[in-house]
Design a protein that fits this description.
Structural class: alpha/beta
Distance between the termini: 37 Å
Strand order of the largest sheet: 12-11-10-13-15-16-9-17
Radius of gyration: 21 Å
Number of helices: 11
Number of strands: 17
Strand content: 15-25%
Number of domains: 2
Order of helices and strands: EEHEEEHHHEEHHEEHHEEEHEEEEHHE
CATH superfamily of the largest domain: Chloramphenicol acetyltransferase-like domain
Helix content: 25-40%
């Protein structure tokens, strides 16, 4: 049921003290040695994450673990890391990826491509991606190959979530991404601002909203106001939020359970209640499905999708160069997508918001939003 799409993760590492003062020739040798080490440690890691070296077959329903392997690409970038961190640009970030995020290859070809790090969302969610990255980093560091040290994956999701049996005639088509004309922008919420926001939005319904709840609600409210001003339509607005199910089921599932262990809930805000959110997951989700089946009769609806990668320890991924200076995603050509990630201090939040150019201009001028968020500040300064 997942879209045919790759999940991008970009990890940026600074030049370490061991390579900053060496000659160009020795620096190039150091890069080559580092790549060889990454390839060797990746091969060891894939023995534990063996589905990532396979291919999706039989109408998107089976991962064939045939050891076809993963792609490893070495690219040279003619700029400084500080240039990227000083002014992050979603379109520029896409150029550091080995393949387009929306490529159909996500359903037929490589499941894992490494130019930095890149996994197909057909079989892996953010939690699995994080488990993979940190396991690989542990092996690359040479800390230990023992199972007690490595956080190895468990591939038992199919026993918990029974696969749907499809006949050859009823196999659902792959959900391919239709690219839209939209713009991605980065907004940064500092920890102190989030704390203030949490206090101000607390209510009898949600006495202690989480960081993600407070930030995502503000983004949805601001985006809805921008959309209604732009389109001059007063239709309902829907907010679909993906949720990691591992800790939310009884009994809880292991954190290292691999796969797409993701659920979602959908909220609806009617035109009379921009600030007051109406939570009715089943009915809201049914209305979205009706729009997908009969789009022309629901063209005044706005649907937003949010996924949170907060609390996943991407900043702990040390391959031997220290921890990342920045962990981020790249822009996805789908309108009304929101991706939340931790700042490097793991207290603040970075939000990548993709919307139409017209709505973005209104969204970015929302004074309530700007009271809590900075528009694409330098990573170096934050």
């Amino acid at each position: 049921m997942a879209f045919v799409i790759y999940t991008p993760l970009l990890l940026f590492y600074p030049i370490t003290s061991t390579t900053s003062n060496v000659s160009t020739r020795h620096h190039a040798m150091s890069i080559d040695e580092g790549c060889r080490h990454l390839i060797e440690s990746l091969a060891k890691t894939l023995t534990h994450f063996y589905p990532l070296a396979g291919r999706i077959v039989k109408g998107n329903s089976i991962v064939k673990c045939n050891d076809d392997g993963a792609a490893f690409i070495k690219a040279r970038i003619s700029c400084c890391l500080s240039d990227i961190l000083e002014n992050p640009d979603g379109q520029i970030l896409k150029r550091f990826l080995p393949i387009e995020i929306e490529s159909k290859e996500a359903g037929t070809g490589w499941l894992l491509l490494v130019q930095v790090n890149f996994i197909s969302h057909r079989i892996a969610d953010a939690s699995t991606l994080c488990t993979f990255i940190n396991c690989w980093a542990t092996i690359a560091l040479g800390s230990s190959d023992s199972d007690q040290v490595l956080n190895l994956p468990e591939f038992g999701a199919a026993s918990v979530f029974k696969p749907i049996e499809f006949s050859s005639s009823s196999q659902p088509p792959a959900r391919e991404v239709v690219k839209e004309k939209c713009i991605a922008q980065r907004y940064v919420f500092d920890a102190s601002k989030i704390s203030t926001l949490q206090s101000e939005v607390a209510s009898s319904f949600v006495a202690k909203p989480t960081r993600v709840e407070a930030v995502s609600a503000l983004i949805w409210k601001s985006a809805t106001e921008a959309s209604r001003s732009n389109l001059r339509k007063q239709g309902p607005s829907f907010f679909r939020q993906d949720v990691n199910l591992r800790k939310r089921v009884v009994p809880p599932l292991p954190e290292n359970l691999a796969g797409n262990v993701v659920g979602s809930f959908t909220s609806k805000a009617d035109e009379e209640s921009t600030a007051k959110l109406v939570f009715d997951s089943d009915e809201a989700w049914q209305e979205i499905k009706d729009k997908q089946n009969k789009p022309k009769t629901h063209d005044n609806m706005e649907i937003y999708s949010c996924t949170s990668w907060c609390r996943f320890p991407f900043y702990e991924a040390d391959f031997g160069w220290g921890r990342p200076s920045w962990a981020s995603v790249a822009s996805i050509a789908i309108k009304n997508i929101v991706v939340l990630m931790d700042k490097r201090d793991c207290s603040g939040i970075e939000a990548w918001v993709t919307m139409s150019e017209e709505s973005k201009a209104l969204f970015e001028s929302n004074m309530e939003l700007l009271g809590y968020a900075s528009v694409n500040p330098s990573v170096i300064d934050t």
